[in-house]
Automatic annotation (TrEMBL), chains A, B:
This is MerR family transcriptional regulator. One of its GO terms (molecular function) is DNA binding. Pfam families: MerR_1. Keywords: DNA-binding, Repressor, Transcription, Transcription regulation. Residues 1-70 form the HTH merR-type domain.
Amino acid sequence: MRMAELSAESGVPVATVKYYLREGLLPPGERTSPNQARYSAAHVQRLRLIKALTEVGGLSLASVGAVLSAIDGDETPHRTMGVVQQELAGTPPKVSDEDAEWASGRLADLMRRHGWKVHPPEHRTMANLVAALATARELGQETLTERLEEYADLAMHVAELDVQVVARLTSIDNIIEAGLVATVLGDRIFAGLRHLAQEQVSRKVLGGG
Amino acid sequence: MRMAELSAESGVPVATVKYYLREGLLPPGERTSPNQARYSAAHVQRLRLIKALTEVGGLSLASVGAVLSAIDGDETPHRTMGVVQQELAGTPPKVSDEDAEWASGRLADLMRRHGWKVHPPEHRTMANLVAALATARELGQETLTERLEEYADLAMHVAELDVQVVARLTSIDNIIEAGLVATVLGDRIFAGLRHLAQEQVSRKVLGGG
């Protein structure tokens, strides 16, 4: 298909498509004349993926680039998903050393008890989690962290479902892309369901209106 | 305490504190002379809350303002949390009419089966959820949405835990603030735990490395 069709199919404006081509986020089409190229269904899918990562996932174009390089690289699916999760995690907020130390201990404790391991040990997901726990403590909301074991158990159930969803696909490319989509959209979908569910429970407990 | 101490206690720079005072995000201190004011522990807590909302929750200052007005207002806790969730949800991404219609039907179906109700019926959490489901479909990842019932069941368990955590606090102010903190930090903490758990499960299923 031509550029105009690619834009219409993917819902991404022509100027944006051209920008992604220049930035290397989208591979070049097959050149048919000095001024024209032909694009395929793979280009449409790649554009939709970029849209999902930026609009739903809230990723910067730099993060999208890092994620796509990982997908297109030769790493194992497991390592690729590691890169994806790093980029999704963003930069952890600043917290005081004392609160950070307390939160690290709390998390290490939890992981030991659940037999969870991470490689490399200090990755960004952990740094974010530590910062969030430290912030809860700073705000005097330790109650939230007292039930961390139960949250971890439920997170494990969700993760098992996530991996079942992803593992149903057979091709390696699909598994990685599905893993990416499952992570980005999955977080948003689960947060949305949780908020709706909170509304059901809180109406009963905290009183209506 | 004086401004310098308020800044040190909260970890928010003096210039930023002054900006928040001008913008009305932080209530004025008690004036002790034409050039000086005295601040209380409530000011420290409010600054920490603003920091958590912006740095961990990723909220804009405009959204923080809306959330704080809701907290300081006369609404019921349930309605206040509604405002909080609207602001946290952000603006839903654009999707095609066809996919949006499909996703709305899918969500309406789920909510009917679970007996979930929302007031007002079209709020932003729903709009975001619809957009995320529609994006999954657009990317050919309907597998994610096929297990929506199971995700909703798990979300209900998480929400029950959330409300138990919040309901343990007795004062109304604390309940609302705890609800806010639980929502903002709770989403981040759960997403972090889920990613760590995914890593445990996926290492076994997708192969190591």
